[in-house]
Amino acid sequence: MVNLSRQVLCLVYAVIAGLALVGTWGNNIQYLNLGFVGANLRFWQDTFANPASRSITVDLFFLMLAATVWMLLEARKLSMKGAWLYVLFAMLIAVSVTFPIFMIHRERTLASRDGSAQGGTLSTWDLIGLGALALVMLVYTLQSLHR
User: Fold this and answer.
1) Torsion angle defined by CA atoms of residues 95, 97, 101 and 103, in that order, rounded to the nearest 10 degrees
2) pLDDT tens-digit map of 34-75
3) Residue 122: is its pLDDT beyond 90?
4) Distance between CA 19 and CA 34 in Å, rounded?
5) How far is CA 88 from CA 73, 76, 82, 84, 111, in A?
6) How many domains does the chain have?
7) Which residues fall within 8 angstroms of residue 129, CB to CB, at 6 or more apart?
8) Which of 49, 53, 98, 141 could form a disulfide with 23 if both were Cys (CB 3.0 to 4.6 A apart)?
9) H-helix or E-strand containing 139?
10) Residue 111: which of 99, 121, 123, 120 has the closest Cα?
11) What is the dihedral of CA 130, 135, 137, 141, to 10 degrees?
């Protein structure tokens, strides 16, 4: 078992948010020449392009809904302010960027409440699985940016 500090978790979440920002906006930038309204209209129209794009969009919407319920409950439980801003920015920027930032906020709030630096424990197999998953996501992201 590997003990992770809250600082390490915050660093991991920050790296995830940064990579997600590069991956999403590296693709979204193609829409910016259409202006804010035009870019949004075209982006959402393009999510209907084929069954795969529709499937992943529906998948992300329901994942975001579940994450939003959890974030709001967690924010209320921990007296964290600005929970709805994370939801708004998830729609304007990317949920893959704002959710890890919410998690950083949560870890910092928990650390200030209980003074504990302990973030959690993962097994070696958990770390191997997370590493493999991260590698697949990184490869896909890099491929998406070169199309």
Assistant:
1) 60
2) 999 999 999 999 999 999 999 999 999 999 999 999 999 999
3) yes
4) 25
5) 16, 17, 10, 6, 26
6) 1
7) none
8) 141
9) helix 124-145
10) 120
11) 150
